[in-house]
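To whoever is on call:

I kicked off a structure prediction for a single chain this morning and the downstream step that reads the tokens threw a length-mismatch warning. I double-checked the sequence; it's 504 residues and nothing unusual in it as far as I can see. Pasting both halves so you can look.
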Amino acid sequence: MNSIMVKKERGQNNPIITQRFMADPYAIEYEGTIYVYGSNDSGSLYKDDKGNYYRNSYSNIKSINCISSDDMVNWTDHGIIQVAADDRSGRAGIAKWASNSWAPAACYNNVMNPETGKEQLMFFLYFANSAANIGVLVSESPVGPWRDPIGKPMITRETPGCDGVEWLFDPAVLVDDNGEAYIYFGGGVPEGKQKAPGTARVAKLGRDMISIEGEAVKIDAPYIFEDSGINKIGDTYYYSYCTNWSEEAGEAMGKAQISYMTSKNPMGPFEYRGEIMQNPGQSEYFSQKAWGNNHHCILGYNGKHYMFYHTPQYEIDIDLKLEDAPDKCAYRTTYVDMVTVAKDGALHVDKMTRTGTAEQLMCVNPFEEIKAVTFVWGEGVSTEPKKIMPENKKSEMDMSLCVMEKKGWIGLSGVDFSAKGCKNIVVNAASDIDCELRFYIGKVSSENMIGKVDVTKTDSVDNYSVFRGDISVGEDILKGVHDLFITFDCEECGNSMIDSWMFE
């Protein structure tokens, strides 16, 4: 899975995932939880014989990251979706025909089950196989398991209306209020056509959500490069995209910016409206070295709009030691900041930040089981797939927190202890060494420690056991909403896998 050690200070809510690099984010909301899917840039994260990491190569992107949050600040890691086979890791791919999995788009809709003859809710994950074609996976859950329903690409160069599309990639999908669905895709700049590349398309999806109905229609997006996005706000459809790198684009609207068009019809025609977001390398809060390909997704939820985007800023911040290969690509990961929607319908992102401008939507309930891979800050930890006993097979979407340093820690924002009193802390873990988990509210200091749990050696790191510890402070001190910190105090480095915790 090529996870790396987390290094994220308190107060830095961006990027939203740091244990793996995650590009091309796409966000959906389902039953009050936000799910984000993104290209797993960590597919290239291998070391050379000098201990330096290889630079990123998009040809190594063969899996998709999945994370979720119900509060927009603390995020749960669901691991990776292995779309294409990865020979180096030995993982088989779900789509046997695919060689890559770039820039996913996700949605859910009611479709007919051919076996029962009844409608049922299904989830759909569209992905680009390099720039050659677009495939689809389906599941009954937003976190899988996923399967390939057609065993081949859904959109190819033979799809009607796709003539002239340089790059068949970067899908976005819209399920309209009436259940009808549309997919947006394409990119590339034919020689001499910087102003009007003519490479964006929209097509109506069949009722099965895994086929195209009719012919793809051209979207005349000025200076388009790549990165389709689609939203419906009120009765208006917003098509958004990344502009190209030409000097003409720079003079007209800016290079590699996120621009948008609007229409009253999901298949257009669309009218150009303006710029939503600059390139992250132009942010006053980021390094100018963060210039790069720009990719986005806008999510509307509870009357607010969120911009998910990627940038190589985290690679810059942690000073990842990379081999000298300037022809290769940077490692990108996902950030989220707010979108302003003006009274006239104009969209704009005012700030791209490390701190994050998205407010926490709800508190964490510590009296229900919390996966240990749910956190916002941390250091000296990472995440790995949990192994299921007794078969000893990895479940890619069931993750545990891996303690990588003797003094590793994680932090959660806004944990609410007001509901009831508690006497114990319960931890589910597996470890080949002894490890003490200490719990703090507010900050990590002796006067703020509220309890501890001793995790002793288990039979193996695959064999999870339940450990309990006492609360060491009175209820009056604990009650209220606090940031919660968990530290992992180990006498030596080993394998400690923390599955979950809760207060009771």
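Update from on-call: the warning came from a stale cache, not from the record. Cleared it. Sanity check on the structure: Residues 47 and 132 are 29 Å apart (CA to CA).
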